Amino acid sequence: MTVVFTCLDADTLGGIQQVTHTLAQGLAERGHEVHVVGLYRAATPFRYVERPRYRQHVVGGPAGREGALTRRLADRRMKDLLGAVGSGYAVMTSPSVVIRLSGLLPAGFRSIGQYHGSYDHARGSWHLGSIKKHYPDLDQALFLSEDDAWSFSEHALLPNACTVPNPLGAWPEETSALDVPRVLGVGRLEGVKRFDRLISAFARADAPPSWELHLIGDGLERERLRAHAAREGVADRVVFRGLVPAHLMREEYLNASLVALTSEHEGLPVVLLEASAHGVPSVAFDVSGGVRSAGPVRVPPGDVDAFAAELSVLMGSARERRRLGAAARARAEAFRLDHVLDRWESLFAHIER
């Protein structure tokens, strides 16, 4: 079969992009024809797959610089691409993409609209109204957790809601020894990730001074976060690592004893799944059904003191880290790529019926 994944920007560092490229490679390796399309060109492209078996396309220019003529040309290129493919499944990875492709899909395409956020996040933004308006007309509306699919089905009256979780890109044979005094934070250094809260929680945690917080990622908040670490008195223990290539992240998890996630909102964070697969326990704010399905130690959203208390417990007990790490790895089995690809192929078969 033919599958076309479309993102606003397919090559920026981000969770939607990572999941899209992982699924594209997995389906291509199963013999399907797969395309990944970016509606906009990434300012700084990030490579997720070293040797892609799928085809990649960019139909537009840089985001934020699009005039009416540029958009019409990009829409024409998108329509021509879909016309050349002929038929298959169009997987639209966000409400913005669903809106953009409305009217561009040829008759031979089945439409699948993903939402990578939670119901609670959608309810607090324009996303919920857009999903209510546009997703019922799709062949399938796809969410990351049973909790969120149920909420959209009940409160947004979606008759076509179902669940397929994010996948793990690879299953590691080796797990962390959990003996390096290091907490790992992974993500874009942007406001929504609230690394300021993570730095504060780390500073307040009761732990030996040998422990460090390593932040992997880059973004506009970097210097502000450096200053925040200095104000919290932990500038010498917070290490800003910058971007790390996807294929090198294995070593980062193997050299971590904890992973921490303090985002304002999340769908199903891949970092929690990857940490679990490497036997690394995690602490996260309880912001979505996807976070709950990943199984971290959960803390009420925004409660920095409670987060610090959980960090203190785990930083102070190797035995508790090993117990939670083993349970996390067992839970992560459900998110192995082959299992998730099976669910995608079952979804395609369901749509055909």
UniProtKB/TrEMBL annotation:
Domain Glycosyl transferase family: 179-330
Residue span, Glycosyltransferase subfamily 4-like N-terminal domain: 14-156
Example of a GO MF term: glycosyltransferase activity
Domain of life of the organism encoding this protein: Bacteria
The EC number(s) this enzyme carries: 2.4.-.-
InterPro entries: Glyco_trans_1, Glyco_trans_4-like_N
SUPFAM superfamilies (alphabetical): UDP-Glycosyltransferase/glycogen phosphorylase
This protein's UniProt keywords: Glycosyltransferase, Transferase
Protein name as annotated: Glycosyltransferase
